[in-house]
What we know:
The protein has 556 residues and is mainly α. 62% of the residues lie in helices and 5% in strands. The chain folds into 2 domains: 40-357, no CATH class; 450-555, no CATH class. A 4-stranded mixed beta sheet has the order 3-4-6-5, with helices on one face. It has a two-stranded antiparallel sheet with strand order 1-2. β3, α21 and β4 form a beta-alpha-beta unit.
Amino acid sequence: MLTLLQSLFVDQPFLSRSTYSILFSLLGVVYIIGLFVPLMDNDSAHHANIALRMYLTGDYVNLVDHGKDYLDKPHLHFWLAALSYNIFGVTTFAYKFPSFLFTIIGTYSTYRLGSSLYTKEIGKLAALITASAFAYILANNDVRMDAILTASIVFATWQLVDWVKNKKLINALGGALGLALGFCTKGHIAVVVPAVSIFFYILYLKDWKAFFHPHLLIIIAAFFVIISPVVYCYYLQYDLHPEKVVRGKSGRSGVQFILWKQSIERFEGDSFGAEAKNDYLFFFHSFLWAFAPWSILAFVAFFSRLKNFITRKNEWLTIGTFATILILISISGFKLPHYLNILFPIAGVMTAAYLVQHSADRSLLKKVLVLQAVVSILCLLAAGVLNAWAFPPKSILMILGFLIMLVAVVYLLRKNSNRLQQILISSVVSSALIFYLLNANFYPQLLTYQVGNELAFDTKGKVDAKNVYFWPGIYSSSYNYYTSELRKEYTDSVKNNRPLWIFIDENHLPELKAKGFNVLESYEHVDYEITRLSLKFINPARRKEVTGKGLLVRVQ
């Protein structure tokens, strides 16, 4: 059946090798620029500091966040970051580099998955579509676990698809590796997605014997062997220390949490992403921007396949996985937009196959071209206004780079004249242009309103971070990271036998003075919670209304 399906998709190149090279190069430039944009305080700098503690202390067993045990996520992301620090030092690039490498692996795995399900050309298009999706690019700037998790999932899915087709042991072991790496990054979701994919794939092929193949035991055994270091670390950190109190509870079993309870807690939404708990369409409308500029086309591809599901006209892996996971996470209690990234490779393959399947339908392609042109132009206009109004470009080099990219666009569109080529090129290039503006201009200027990194840069060589204490209730992961010094909270027991610096904000400054401190010297910088943009902040004329100040003061 699979051979018959693949024969319906002629493996002819829709884009030339040089066009692919130019498009991937444009995206590569955007990704690389993002590797040097400073870390954002909420998750990126926060996670970077957990790895920083590993690097500074040599303790790679315990996950500790600002002096407290960190239970939420497994070790792999932090281990990779700490390893990168050992190679490159404690820098922005060092923290983001492992995710960038996994993104390359994930993009290649998307190509191989599309090739296995259909043809090499569909694999290439799927990789191109996925690599140009907004949130896929963003995951390499605002770096959390998502790039590593997504790559592990699609790698596991590709390997398991090849195992079902060929029953080779190497693919079984590859599948186990992908499942384990994903689990060691973010838990059970990394196992659920490939498992659902392979379930639908086997159902479609009617390969019932695959459910009872002895290789499955090898996959399970290899999976548990690979995840054993993480499970053991949880045992050492929690099971041997039942007295530890985490989220108001003592007697926690780390092994039980990572092997079972983590998924239950996330599904219930008691501790994670509960703000949108009752918004059951949250992931549907979030997908519209997260997978842009391809999101509407992906939904069209999905519903087109849904209509033909019973007739088995198309493979079931992509549609089954997309529907099942989207429904599953929509009824769960945890809801955050970046959780959608795990579906991007599947959506990329599904969208690429839809385009190729209808490549001879001139009327449909004309409509799709109009759709993608409208989406691309609207997104470009939004990015242009955001940059020109909120943070006008100041760098001549940045503007020159943008003009060079525009020249590349004109060259590509003139060289590739048919509608399918124009759909692909215009969509990919619009994404590259948008994130070029964001990574080269918007985010660097936005990060100047994050007080932690700015005070770290301003006081480098002037203030010894070992003498800096944080006022109770004040946190700045970016300051800790860019000074390579773990957070120390000020208490009355701190001895003032050396220069004493306190990190504080303007709202708490009266408390400090009320305790009788004299401010001898100070550095200050404007501050805003940049991950929660508001219209007042975006508007330069009203920005001061919503910004505050952070200070680093030497006191006596």
